[in-house]
Amino acid sequence: MNPRRDLRNNKVALFDGIEEGGIRGSSSYSHEIDEHENERAVEGLQDRVNLLKRLSGDIHEEVDSHNRMLDRMGNDMDSSRGILSGTMDKFKMVFETKSSRRMFTLVASFVVVFLVIYYLTR
Known about the structure:
Order of helices and strands: HH
């Protein structure tokens, strides 16, 4: 026989059990590494969830403030509509009488003449 082949067979026979134990050990070690990586991934996900939770809370507060602002604006528009409605009623009353119509024509004429003179002198 070949002495090299015998030496190789002896090494295989000698280290066969150690390699299996080494494989088992590395498998256990691999499992621990996987668990550690999973724990780090879970912590990363928890951080992301917390960030998203804070972000959604900020968005909620922003939406609430905009809703309050829109409500105030709607109330202001309603009050403006009431004032404008009253003004339009008075304006209609002015047009209904003939003497008021003359007064309006006179005021409108002065405004038109003033605007024409203003634009000509400019």
